[in-house]
Structures are given as structure tokens and as C-alpha cells.
Amino acid sequence: MKKRLLLPPKYPDGQERQPYPVKLMQHQETSHELAQKINHIVATYPATAAMLEEIAHLVGVATDADCCCLVTVTDEESTQTTTANWCSDEFLGMPLPDQMFSAERFLMELPVLQCAVEPRNIDEISIIRNSLAIGCQHLPLPIKAVLAIPTRFGGKNNGVIALIKFEAHDWHESEKHILKAVETSCAIAFSQVQQAQLISFQQQYLQKNNQHQSLIKQLTILSRSNLELTQMLQLAIASTAECLQADRGLLILLKYTDPLFRTPVKKQVPQAKADVVSEWRRDNISHAEFISSSFSLSDCGLCQKVFLDAGKPVIINDYADLQDSTSVAPLFAITELPAVLLMPLENQGKILGFLVLQQAVARNWQQAELNLVEMVCAQVSNAIIQSKTLRQVQTLVDDRTAKLQSSLELQSRLHEKMRQHVDQLRELNQLKDEFMSNISDRLRYPLTNMMMSIKNLRLPGIPPERQVKYLEILENECAKEINLINDLLTLQKLESEQEPPQVENIDLNARIKNLSTSLTKKFADKGLSIKLDITKEPLKLQTELESFDRILQELLNNAYTYSERDTIIHLHASHQVDQLVDQVMIKVTNIGRGISEEEATYIFDRFRRGRGGRWTPGTGLGLALVKSLVQHLNGAIAVESNPIPDSQLSEICFTLTLPQFSDESTPYSDSD
Description:
Blueprint: H1 19-44, H2 49-63, E1 67-72, E2 83-87, H3 103-108, E3 113-115, H4 123-135, E4 145-153, E5 156-165, H5 173-224, H6 229-243, E6 248-256, E7 272-281, E8 294-296, H7 301-308, E9 314-316, E10 339-347, E11 350-359, H8 367-458, H9 464-496, E12 504-507, H10 508-518, H11 520-524, E13 529-533, E14 540-543, H12 545-562, E15 568-578, E16 581-592, H13 597-602, H14 622-632, E17 636-643, E18 650-659
Parallel strand pairs: 3-4, 13-15
Antiparallel strand pairs: 1-2, 1-5, 4-5, 6-7, 6-11, 7-8, 9-10, 10-11, 12-14, 15-16, 16-18, 17-18
């Protein structure tokens, strides 16, 4: 087709310029780039409507159109029309007009439609019309101008590209040129979408054919599974109904009221009750139409036909076409679901129930479908018989197993209680022996010294200075006995009576300094010294003064007893807030023989001492008393032993933690 070029205008400088060829070249470059972009989208995007939407966006922007519409064209039943629209931002979100665009109105207004190329055949105009009628139904504004081009692939039309203006517009050659340039790329895109749809249809067809085979395999697996019979029957009827695309599926089991009825006689209908044990409905089937889930066999002529026809299935393509007035149970809702397939569940000549499939429209059941349902019924019948047999066997086994398990559990409990009693008796006996041994030692030694002093005082001619010495021995040993008895009584009182501590405010730093000063001479005799690590500011503590003094005194005495000579005992006191708990921490650290993990488990027990204290004088009640007093003050006590490198000694640290307020319900105030 020849085109007449316009003469270029004259310019004052005498030079001639030719803007039109340059503009055409720019459009050619734009069309080429646009085609490349579309090819890239086709190569990278999945073949779906989203890919066509991206292409519509590119073409619409490149042509400055108000809307770009892409519609696939197909003449195959296996594929469906795909539409992709793009609109400019100024038209997005606009309310739809009262009078929507209609295909009939558009077909009558042909002047708004132009083709980018001469139609190749007479059908292309019809193809464009139909495509636009499909693709432009939901546009926000009436269409005033359309420029369309049909695409061809493999010698056939496979789509339409349409540029749309919502105002009157004369389409330029450049816009037609762009559509011509992208026709091939869009045709490939349309072809890919159609091929993807065709592949999807073929896959669905193959899947439908494989469902018949997989259904039997699935039911075989279900029959071997550990599912309950009700669950298995529900899965079986659901799978069968879905596979055959039925609207409703039922599994009905019979309960014979005549116990003597074993093998049915021809033309004889037994007395039985039918119960629906499993049901499946398609979503669009109403539930309110079906009333009862059980009925008497004598009230349903449809089910009676199975017995009258010697176990043959009942097939009704359309119940409305039947001339006879056969009675049907209401639950079948035969007027809404007139197509019925009723297959008996049979085992060794006895009918166990029925498998029912129903359709809302008339249906001719194919022989392959009947064979499939018959095989399903055989699987379901076997599963029912196996379930009943297994249930009986399982009931017997469970009963015997429960009795045996009960007997074993009773024996196990008796054995465990006996073992616990033996362990408790053994432990009590051991504790009793240890207690008697320790208490006898603690009582015997002072009494022996006291008896010896009394005997010596009775000797004639004892010098006065010797008498004073023996009296001091008597006084010291008597004090030991009194302290031992007082400690035992204190422990007993702390364990038996849970009296709240009598708290008062104390200056912790002052108490520590006073106690360390009183022990300085005693510690110096062994070459020991006390190093205090306390805060310069006064550290206040609300606690029971007598109990606190006794705890600190016992910890320092313990450090004195088990410290190596010529070492330093460290006493550290600090205030800290741990997890919103206001508390005071006191650490007493000394150097001596280490405490093993085993010893750390009983070191706070009464009369239990570590290996390093077996030959050291003492009652063995100090740390036990410390533990009880700490618990009395709502605190905690712990011990840690860390070996010193290149030495046989260890650093032993007792950590005492006391709450800032022993009674948290009555904390002291600043005015206190």
C-alpha cells in the first residue's frame, strides 16, 4: 500500500529539515524495543492471564491508549477464552456507569472500530467484534474509538489486540505500526496461554481416567489401615461419589430383626432396619431436604427390589420416567435427585446393606461405572466383615490384656512401695546409727572430762592453782553440753514451728565489723586474718538480729576451723537487685581442703561433716543450724569449692543471700 509523503516546510535559514523520517525511525525503534520486551515476558512469565496483563500494560503505555484489551480466540472445546485488560491510571478506581457497556450496542456502532491491517478474511471482523464484546464488558467508560488487530499463529487466528479510547480519536499510522510490530510476539503469547490451557485440560482428562484405578487402590489401602470403620466408610463413599461426579452418596447398613434369617430366599424380603452410616453431598445440595437417617426395609420398595431381583443392583436413570408407583424412603429425596444407582453390599450370599449414588439430573450409568461401583462394594463388604471380626477378637484380647495389665500394675506398685519402704528403713537406720554415734561422742567426751576433773578435785592436797584449772575444765565442758542441747532444741523448734521472724533494722556494716573485731584475737592464734570487703555507705538490713548474728558467727567459726594456717578469710557484703528482688549477699571465703560434690550434698545436715573435719573438734551442728536459720529468714545458703592451680588446697566460698525485707508484706519505710 503506497503512502504519500508530505513536503517538508521551508525554514528561514534556507536549510531543509525532514522531521517525519526521524519520527518514523523513532517509532520503529520503539516498536522493536516493545516487541523485545514482550518476547522477554513470554520467555520468563508463566503462561497465564497475568502474562497477558503485563503485555497489555506495555502496549497500552507505548501507544498512549486509555485501555488495552487482549483476548484469546479459540475454536476448541478443550480451551476457554482468556481476557486481559489494562486501563490508564486516571480511569482506575472510577465508579462504573449506570448503563454498563453491552456487546449488542458495540456491534451496532461499527464506526468506532478500525483495523490496524486489512482483514485477511471475512471472518476476522466477526472475530474482532466477538473478542471485544467479551473483553470490554467491564470497562469504566463507554468506548469511543477502537484500533484492533487480529493475531495469527500456525495459519489460524488465535487472538485480538485492541487499543481503546474513551473519547473520539483518529488513530495514527504510528499506532497501527506498533500493533503490527507486536502482532507476532502477542500471537506467541496467545498460543502459549492456549497451549497451557490445553495441557491442563488433557491432564484433567488423564486424571479423571486414572481416578477409577486409583479409587480401588485407595480403598484397598483404607481397608488395611487402622482407621475406624465409620471413618473408612465415610472416605469410601466420598471418594466414590467424587470420582463418579455424583451429587450425593450414601452407605446404608441393614440390621436384621429376624435372627433366624441367614440366607435370603428368592422373592422374600426380610424384616430389617436400614441405617445411613455414611453420607456425602455436593456443596450445592441442600441439607434440609433430607429428614431421617433410618427407615424400615418394608417401607422402601426401592431397596426391596434388590432382594426380589436376587441381589442385582437397582438402576434408575430418571425416576420421573418410571410408570410404576414404587414406594421410596423419604431420605432418598427422589424428586430432587431422580437418578439413582443402588448397589447391594453382599458377602457370602448375605446382603449387608447398600451403596447409593444419586444425581440431580437424569443420567445414563455406563457399564464401566457400574463395574467400578461393584468393585467398591466388594471392598466395602470385606472391610465391614473384617471390622466386625476384628472387633470381636479385639474385645476379647483387650479384656484379657486389661486384666493382665491390672495385675502387673498392682504387682509393680506393691513392689515399688516395698522397695521405697526398704530404702526408707535402710536410710532411717543409717541416720539413726550416725545420730547415735555422733550424739554419744558429743556427750561422752565432755562428760569424761568432767568426771576426770571431779575425781582430781577430790584428791587430797590439790594445790589451789590446780583446783582452779579443774574448775575451768568443768565449766567449759558443761558449757559445751549446754550449747549442744540448746542447738538441738533450736533445730527442733525451727523445723517444727513456723513462726515469722521478729525483724528489726540493723546496720549490716557495723554488725560485721563488731563480729570480726571480737574474733581477731582467736583468728590470730592460728595465723589467720579477716579481710572485710564492704561498702563505705551504711548498708541497712531488716532481719532478725539474733538469727543473723548466729548465722554469721557460725560461718566465720566454720572458716576458722577448716582454714589452712597463715591464710586470709575474706568477708564480702553487697546489696543487689536481681529480677526485681531487693536482697543482700554475704560471701565468706577461706582457703583449705576442698569440698567434693558428694560432701556438698550433705554438708548442711546435722552431725554430717566433710572428710577434713572428722578429726576436728566440733558438734557437727553448726552448718545445719545455719541452714535452718537462713530458711527461717526466707534466705538461701550455698557452698562452692574451687581448686587452686598447682596446689592441693581449694578456695571454699559460702554465699548467704537474704532479702532486704524478710517479711515482704511489711517492708520498713524511711520513717522507720
